[in-house]
Specification:
alpha/beta; two-stranded antiparallel sheet; 12 helices; globular; disordered N terminus
Length: 381
């Protein structure tokens, strides 16, 4: 067996039997909110204790079928707590089992902090999550990479938080919600966030969310969970259009964005539609200098979960054709652990060609996040 070994934590990547995997969507949890107390000021500790942490993640819908906070029941560690609240159990159940070279962490539910009407509280909790993430996860495993959690309803404060922890060597991205607090993500009020992300070389990653709190004016997510899951892609389409026609990438030419848990089959249609209207109507958006489809391929990446799992060889060809129309370099593997929609790499990609798996499982993530190539025998992780 040929292996790569990190001497610090003795992480082993099996090179001969399994393709290495970089999972770009893992959601760690504290065992309880009280784990964040050491990272909060006395004022906010007292405030949150008195209000019992209500309003922190506002209006996450209590849909009937979403039991156990949407977590896999078997993701709960033996000692108890929320799913993915034990690093050792995560390694055993997922990272080691599927030959993970790296995991990109995005603390669970923190994408809803930007929906809180009380932005001062949300900003304090975002900072606490960042320090907790560094102490309880990143410092204990050098293969892990983190998200700078922010409260984006105050872009200036969010930028200061990115500056505070964004230079940590294991921070890889800025964590955002696909719903924006005010207006679309293409609005220039969010420029301080993009500017800070570029300053620290961080990817801006958008995660699926629901329109609660200040997100409420967003698209209706429906009455039923399958309805909500189906409609997620509509929000992604609207935000990508806002970012492209807002000219964000013309202003921030080094900015890179990743969109996870929103699907991707709709992308060719959106890219075609944006190109068509840009050619005919670009007098209204003269700051957009290139065809939108080109901007997408140069600046945007997409997570594979929820993967379209083909049931036949013909279906596999159709899925690959869709991904090629966007660009095979623009997809990274995402599992969404510990949520019940978790995509196991060996199952979700069972029918796909081996070379495709190498590209999706780790090569594209290496390029996007600047990670060491796990197949490089001289590299360390």
């Amino acid at each position: 067996m040929s292996t790569l070994v990190n001497k610090k934590d003795q992480k082993v990547v099996n090179r001969s039997k399994k393709i290495p995997v970089i999972d770009c969507d893992v959601h760690p949890n504290p065992k309880s909110y009280e784990d964040l107390n050491p990272y909060l000021s006395e004022y906010w500790r007292d405030f949150l204790a008195d209000c019992k942490w209500k309003g922190v993640f506002p209006n996450i819908p209590a849909m009937a079928i979403v039991a156990n906070a949407g977590h896999r029941m078997d993701s709960i560690p033996p000692e108890g707590g929320l799913g993915c609240s034990s690093l050792d159990f995560y390694r055993e159940q997922v990272a080691d089992r599927y030959n993970y070279a790296n995991s990109i962490l995005f603390p669970d539910s923190t994408f809803m902090l930007s929906a809180s009407p009380q932005h001062e509280m949300a900003t304090a909790i975002a900072s606490a999550y960042n320090d907790w993430q560094i102490d309880h996860w990143l410092s204990k495993d050098s293969s892990l990479r983190g998200s700078v959690v922010i409260a984006s309803q105050d872009p200036e404060m969010a930028a200061r938080e990115i500056d505070r922890v964004g230079s940590h060597p294991q921070m890889a991205q800025v964590g955002l919600s696909i719903h924006s607090p005010y207006g679309g993500w293409g609005d220039n009020r969010y420029y301080p966030i993009w500017k800070a992300a570029v300053r620290h070389g961080l990817v801006c990653t958008f995660h699926v969310s629901v329109p609660g709190g200040v997100f409420r004016p967003g698209p209706n997510y429906g009455n039923y969970y399958p309805e909500f899951q189906t409609n997620n892609g509509l929000t992604y389409q609207a935000q990508i259009s806002s970012i492209i026609f807002g000219g964000v990438f013309e202003k921030f030419t080094k900015l890179r964005m990743l969109f996870v848990e929103g699907g991707f089959a709709w992308l060719p249609s959106v890219m075609y539609t944006m190109d068509t209207h840009w050619r005919n109507l670009k007098r209204e958006v003269p700051w957009v200098k290139r065809p939108p489809s080109q901007v997408v391929r140069e600046h945007m990446w997409f997570g594979t979960q929820p993967m379209i799992e083909p049931e036949s060889h013909e279906d596999e060809k159709h899925v690959l054709d869709i991904m090629k129309m966007v660009g095979l370099n623009n997809f990274v593997f995402t599992s969404d652990y510990p949520h019940w929609e978790f995509d196991a790499p060996h199952a979700a990609f069972a029918r796909f060609p081996k070379e495709f798996k190498h590209q999706i499982f780790y090569k594209n993530a290496v390029d996007l996040f600047g990670l060491p190539n796990p197949m490089d025998t001289n590299g360390t992780n």
